[in-house]
Amino acid sequence: MSKRTIGFIVAITVIRAYLAAKLQLHPDETYYRVLSRYLDLSYYDHQPMVAYFIRLTRLFSDGEFFVRFSAIVASIFLSILIWKLADEMFNSESVSFWSVVILNIYPVVAAGTVITPDVPSFIFWGVCVFIFWRLVNSAENVKARKYWFYLGTAGWENVLVYPGTQVVSGEIFLFLIGIVAFCIFLVSRDEKNSFSYQCHCPCFCFSLGPGIGQSAR
Question: Whole-prediction pTM value?
């Protein structure tokens, strides 16, 4: 990670920490704080993850700063995660830096001093995207199985944040269906010297066994 990226993360974190300590709790934050005093598996109008986050940081103090402390930590974690993802995807320090900047000026993330259900939601969404990127680019079956387990775990944690966040599972499913359909199309055309074969896409078809795998041979 470059010095300017570290400097930006440190600067934005100091600003958020100052605001978290000085600003009074928003009414929504006060409600989540009350929920954190009575932990449960679910509440009438909310999933429990935000209450878990607040309860964990309230172990140090019950003041505004520690009620919001998990939001500050989450913003640091997301910045590092997006930097790592951009670095692996583009191998460019500039792209990685500006990815971190854009993430932190995005309105919901920019308000990183406020603790809401969006905080754990962004964490698990980011983890799901990063793991799926690693999964798609994994050439080893053992690692692939490991990433599937991690992806399922992170996806399940989203259930404790927002029921609607499970849309990420549908997006992953549609992506895989698209890959299979694309491979079937390539195999049906029998273009073994095409660009797609050079990119090893038909390896997915070979792993399907009899049927498509046989026709690919």
Answer: 0.72
